[in-house]
Amino acid sequence: MEQFFLDLRPAIVKAVRRDMEKIRQEIGNEHLYSAALVTDSDCITLFLAVNTEEALAKRDQKERKPKRLAELRKYWSEELVSQVADGSFSLNRYIPDEWAYSDGKDSELNQISQRLYDQEETLSNAPDDVYDEVHEQFQEQLLETVTLAFETLRTEGVFGPEVLCFVSMSDDERTPEIEDASAQRLNTPEQYEQFQNWTAFFNE
Prior knowledge:
Layout: H1 2-27, E1 32-39, E2 46-52, H2 53-63, H3 66-72, H4 78-86, E3 101-102, H5 108-123, H6 128-156, E4 164-169, H7 175-186, H8 189-202
Parallel strand pairs: 1-4
Antiparallel strand pairs: 1-2, 2-3
């Protein structure tokens, strides 16, 4: 399995590099502020999501409509909703599923997802008494590999110093921990503090 992930890392870097070439053409002069590589709770899919300040502003504008604010009050504190209403807090700033830009259907990340699925299928043949341990190791190695790929992309300049990067997992109780650890590792202390502050207020 070790060789599988050694081979996977450069493949992720190559796929994201190509995706970002297309995405940068799409966003034009908009200002990229954050990027995330997102997997699922079984770690058998991987996709890239990025967002710009301009796209975020458009999305946030919709959140400030009276009907939407009334809905938000059912789930969030009045303090948070008030800040959404006056534009001082964005509910969507670090939520990859709500971002405007992602890799396309022809992305090589789709091929990587297939490789992950096939590898996990192979692991599922393990005896029951070791399956949980093997599966956990597989997931840990994927998260580490994705983080290492992000570090390489940083070094190459695919994501500049102004872009806050992190790894995420869709719909899983581990998501906050995964996002926090990767955000701390991949960004400056100032960026990480910004991410932490947003997360703390979002989760109040």
